[in-house]
Amino acid sequence: MTGETREQFKVLVVDLPAGRGAITSLEGRDSLAGGSGLTAMLFDRYGLPDRPWDDPEQPLIFAIGPLTGYFPLMSKTVCAFKSPYHDQYAESHAGGRSALSLRFAGFDALVIRGKALAPSCLSVGSRHLELKDVHFLWGMDLLRTGKMLRRMYEGSGHRSILRIGPAGENGSAMACINVDTYRHFGRLGCGAVMGAKNLKGIVILGDGSSPLPEGKAYPKLFTEVYRKMTDTDMMEKYHNFGTPINMAILNGISALPIRNLQKTSDPGIEGITGETFARDTLLRNAACAGCPVGCVHLGFVRERFMEENRYLYRQVSYDHEPIFAAGAMLHVTNAFSVLTLLDTVEREGLDIMSAGVALAWATEALEKGIVTTRETIVPLKFGDETAYREGFHHLGAASNDFYRLLAQGTMKAAEHYGGADFACVLGQEMAGYATGEVFFVSQALGLRHSHLDAGGYSYDQKDKEPDVDGAVRFLVQDEQARVLLTSMVSCLFARGVYGDQVLSDCLRSLGYLNLADGLGDVSRNVRKLRWRTRLRTGFDPRTVSIPKRFLEVETWRGRIDSAYLNALKDAYAGAILALGEEDA
């Protein structure tokens, strides 16, 4: 690669109605890096802020970073779109093989525009673009769809398959995009964007090559980074028990959302701790492409298919958030029952975090008489795996008006039926942490409404007195550090390894000299561009509300301080508006 093209992004722009694509080179590498920065730039170029999310010309964007394929854990792909959840700019991140496949296909980003004329699967590669009619897959569940697509598109290793289930076809704001079976673009409804474009699947064929840099600097640095990932205990947590280790930890400090956040601690969750899953259900570990850590934990479910005790076994991935959403939040406290529910949600193509929290709200609404079984169809009851299996199916299938509305977001259903006070929504359905005020504000106002926008959950666990200025300063600075990593598309589990100096050294070894010298400017540029893009599509942090249920929470520090929460929310909203207006 020459010095001239190294500073440019190579982007494949696909026109679905025409079934054709065009490759374009764009400036901006030295100021935006890739990933989160590149997707915001591409939305700024191709997005239509004043048109609805399902307008055919709205882009669906996938982007990687400059270190993808060259260093460990640079394994994420950033997906950007206008969200059906709030009709504003959104990001979702996923692992799997998609990032490496894009690298070997020779592209920094894929931009998909328009709507296919029939239900279709798009396949792209370095010398390949095909749009295939797959109307026979429309209506098929996500797992069967994956089996069919694997038969239709040969190859492995550098081939990545993205697909949606019925939820995406039905326009659910909770619809995810499944990536290579065990990973997901989970949040804010990107699966519905695929569905609106008549895309059942996307296959990325990494059929090209990506030469390694010459000289001794790169292999020496790679070896050192790899050693830090594998020979030290820095990543041991993620490989051993994985993130489910958080279940017992959060329960022990009264910070685990349980039973629609009516409780934050319960000895009954012993049956769904990370230790229990590892002891009773774990089959094996897996990893995203380019990752030596192996944080993907696979348990199993079995399904009886003959009376003579004949069973089919399926592998199901689990992490802290899925266990929280299908387990603690629904008070399902058996590990195999949780895996069965995760398998059910997977078939529908739903984001488990949103789907689990939504059914938790529906269960409490049914208990309180706000809705009846006329709406829920099945008598949802905390702890009832069988009822929740049916409920998840109805949510994915949009079986009636109630589930159709609930699939657009818990708060939309609550505003229609009542029960907004106990809707566990922080911008979108909450993540699996009830640590306190800083986390609640961080997710509610964060750009992705994600617990990973900034480490508010960790700040809450420090023994500090309420400090609005200090907390806001932490959130702003932590977001800036994280957005640099998501522009490099690093897995955030590696943030302890990829400090600024290591990132700079990695970039230098690949010839990105200007980018290596300007990482501080890059993080500020990307943060500013993302917030400006989000605000331009209608986001106003001052209008975000935090439901009453969050004020009733008891943690290890005591009851939530409502005055502190509200002051923190107002101050952080002001900081976000200031970030979006910088040098405008």
UniProtKB/TrEMBL annotation:
MF (Gene Ontology): 4 iron, 4 sulfur cluster binding; aldehyde ferredoxin oxidoreductase activity; electron transfer activity; metal ion binding
Aldehyde ferredoxin oxidoreductase N-terminal domain span: 8-208
InterPro entries: Ald_Fedxn_OxRdtase_dom2 (IPR013984), Ald_Fedxn_OxRdtase_dom3 (IPR013985), Ald_Fedxn_OxRdtase_N (IPR013983), Ald_Fedxn_OxRdtase_N_sf (IPR036503), OxRdtase_Ald_Fedxn_C (IPR001203), Tungsten_al_ferr_oxy-like_C (IPR036021), W-dependent_AOR (IPR051919)
Coiled-coil intervals: none
Pfam families: AFOR_C (PF01314), AFOR_N (PF02730)
Cofactor(s) demanded: [4Fe-4S] cluster; tungstopterin
Gene3D superfamilies with a match to the protein in the record: Aldehyde Ferredoxin Oxidoreductase Protein, subunit A, domain 2, Aldehyde Ferredoxin Oxidoreductase Protein, subunit A, domain 3, Aldehyde ferredoxin oxidoreductase, N-terminal domain
EC number, UniProt record: 1.2.7.5
Protein name: Aldehyde ferredoxin oxidoreductase
Keywords annotated in UniProt: 4Fe-4S, Iron, Iron-sulfur, Metal-binding, Oxidoreductase
SMART domains linked: AFOR_N
Family classification: Belongs to the AOR/FOR family.
